[in-house]
Design goal:
The structure is a single chain. The longest helix has 18 residues, at 129-146. This protein is of the alpha/beta class and 529 residues long. The chain is 39% helix and 12% strand.
């Protein structure tokens, strides 16, 4: 890749229009058609686009089609990504800034790449900042291997709302001090590899039940409450010198003189709270401007881009109207506005000259095992309760998605026991099969990591589960989002163990716990009961 010239030289070389083009970061899709690829190449070549942000496909949740379009699996995504980066870079006069959301690794967008534990799983570990540092470091290495300069991570939102449909498992938890400690460790690990990072979603997206991809969340708290809670990790990380902050599409009227306006287009929040009050000097990037919380407010092409830029955003992410947006900013912005943002963008770009590209992806297996060992959490009951059931005759019952059950397989290496899988068709048969037993070990595999539709569990599955826990001695191992327990009558459970993930390493670790060979070390990262 061609080296990026220093800011002073670039400032003299680029025209005003080319400088404005550097603020635009449209989406690039790994599964695009050739015609769509060529369209983006044309924009890069003719408009001087400064960067692109990669997503999986135009059917993904990030494009507002949550569950409405089928996402096609592509086991060649990494190869495609590398090829597209080369094509797009070849069209640019100056090197593009390549970004992606890789909160839990490239696997968030790209198949057949290392998937690291979710933030909520990392948050369940007790004082394991060194391990979180290692996760941030490994994810950074994988990004650099793929040709990514900028990872839009970590999420530093404090997830205080159990019904949050868009943050939830992406947050380190509901305790602001632990969220800060984990975020800091992740950031330091990433920065150790030279990757560009970004904390999000300012001023805090954790206490909302609205998905900003689809509508605008409003957080109705006092200014004091917001500064003490939502802004807590942002304030501390800004003092640590974080280089970029992503602003979210959420309204906090207490910060905008009572007006319910998205933070992304609020000068009071960006220029006031973020820059003046908190003293942030780095680069401000908008959350995706295609999201319905904000895109529906601006029917005329270019108005959204100009409004977001005028409010204080330096990078306009997922812009769908680049040409009109560049024209509007050219018409309305002052030379000083343009130069201020251009300098911040270019100074960030200069840093990619120093990035080193690893030759291979990281080996995630050992990290998964170590995180599994340190995150396993006893929500209810104790080790004695678990050991009591494991020493008796019991039936193993799995509920939810029909995944590979490494949990029961691992237990079977030591104990022989009958195994069942409940589904909506065999409910009566399962009920009959467990009639003669008093003890059950239930492995619950929620189909969804997000809370929509009760995490993908059917009413029949939940009813069967709750009826069973009320009449039998049940130990439940939950291989998914811990918020799922809100649909379960856990007061009647003998024991409830949070495993967080259904990776093989996590299932096998849970089996070792059931067999009494290890103890649960984790802590509950969010408020559940």
């Amino acid at each position: 890749m061609v080296k990026i010239p220093q800011y002073k030289q670039a400032s003299e070389l680029l025209t005003q229009s080319e400088k404005i083009g550097q603020f635009f970061m449209p989406a690039a899709f790994i599964n695009d058609t050739e015609a769509e690829i060529q369209h983006l190449e044309h924009q890069i070549r003719t408009l001087g686009i400064g960067g692109i942000c990669f997503f999986h496909s135009r059917a993904s949740a990030a494009t507002n089609f949550e569950g409405k379009k089928k996402v096609i699996y592509n086991d060649k995504s990494l190869t495609t990504l590398k090829r597209l980066i080369k094509r797009y870079q070849a069209c640019a006069r100056y090197p593009l800034l390549i970004s992606i959301d890789a909160e839990w690794g490239l696997a968030m967008r790209i198949e057949e790449t290392p998937q690291y534990p979710y933030a909520i799983t990392l948050g369940a570990m007790n004082q394991q900042e060194e391990l979180i540092y290692e996760v941030g470091k490994r994810i950074a290495q994988d990004c650099l291997h793929a040709g990514i300069h900028w990872n839009f991570a970590p999420v530093v939102d404090i997830n205080s709302n159990p019904n949050n449909p868009v943050i939830g498992y992406r947050s380190f938890g509901s305790n602001k001090h632990k969220v800060l400690a984990a975020s800091k460790a992740f950031l330091k690990g990433a920065q150790s590899q030279g990757i560009l990072s970004c904390i999000k979603h300012f001023p805090g997206h954790g206490d909302t039940a609205t998905d900003s991809h689809l509508g605008m969340p409003i957080i109705d708290k006092s200014e004091i409450e917001v500064f003490n809670e939502e802004l807590f990790p942002f304030k501390a990380l800004i003092k640590e010198g974080v280089e970029a902050v992503m602003v979210g599409h959420l309204a906090i009227p207490a910060l905008t003189n009572g007006e319910a306006i998205p933070a992304t287009i609020s000068a009071r929040i960006i220029k006031g709270t973020l820059r003046k009050t908190l003293g942030f000097k780095g680069l401000v990037v908008s959350d995706a401007l295609n999201m319905h919380a904000i895109s529906k407010l601006f029917p005329e092409n270019g108005d959204l881009e100009w409004t977001a830029f005028d409010a204080g955003n330096d990078i306009l992410c997922f812009t769908e109207n680049c040409e009109a947006g560049i024209h509007k900013i050219m018409q309305n912005a002052t030379p000083a506005q343009i130069e201020d943002s251009f300098e911040r963008v270019w100074r960030l770009k200069e840093k990619i000259n120093k990035q080193q590209r690893p030759s291979e992806l990281s080996n995630v297996a050992e990290i998964q095992k170590t995180v599994a060992l340190n995150s396993l959490t006893l929500l209810k009951g104790d080790e004695t309760t678990v050991n009591t059931i494991s020493s008796k005759k019991f039936v193993g019952l799995s509920i939810g998605k029909n995944t590979e059950n490494y949990f029961f397989q691992e237990i079977s290496n030591t104990i022989d026991f009958p195994k069942l899988h409940f589904n909506n068709e065999n409910g009566d048969a399962c009920q009959a099969a467990i009639t003669s037993t008093d003890n059950l070990v239930i492995a619950l595999y929620p189909r969804h990591i997000k809370p929509n539709n009760k995490f993908g569990l059917s009413d029949q599955e939940i009813q069967f589960l709750n009826k069973t826990t009320a009449t039998k001695n049940v130990i439940l191992y939950l291989f998914g989002n811990p918020y799922c327990v809100q649909h379960i009558g856990i007061e009647t459970l003998e024991s409830c163990v949070l495993v967080y993930q259904d990776f093989k390493a996590f299932q096998q670790n849970a089996a070792q716990h059931f067999l009494g060979k290890i103890k649960a070390k984790g802590i509950v990262p969010v408020n559940l009961i």
